[in-house]
Amino acid sequence: MDRWNVFRGITDYSGKRILELGCNMGLLSTHLLKDAGAAAAMAVDRNPKVLDAARMVNCAFNVEATLLVQDFDASEEWETKLAAFEPDIVFALSVLNWVEDKQRFLKFLGRFPEVVFEGHECFEWESRRLASVGFTRVDRVGKSERNRYILHCRK
To answer: Which fold has domain 3-154?
Structure first.
């Protein structure tokens, strides 16, 4: 299934604040701002060069996501800065696999009422992980182009 169609069908993004973790070039944030009515987006990645490309994408599509460089394995506290954005929905697509301190990252996701998550493990394993940080409803909403489940998590 086409990736955009999966995301489009998850929820109504109109007027919502989106936090995209591990955003790469911020294409999801761009799409949600331009085509899905999101009110604001913060796109976060650890690679400043990739965020330079995200700036160009923002410019090309005439949207303005907040772009932020952040290494989720950094020793300094980054959670408060990202939570201060007050997102309605957090996206963490294929990012947990690359984070060393998985429990810290999962605990951060658990702060929010709604998360869209793509993991690398089987559905049962990822569901248990997400339930361990407070999500009471974890639904499979599709598969990525790499055949990994996309999960919609809510409390």
So the answer is: Rossmann fold (3.40.50)
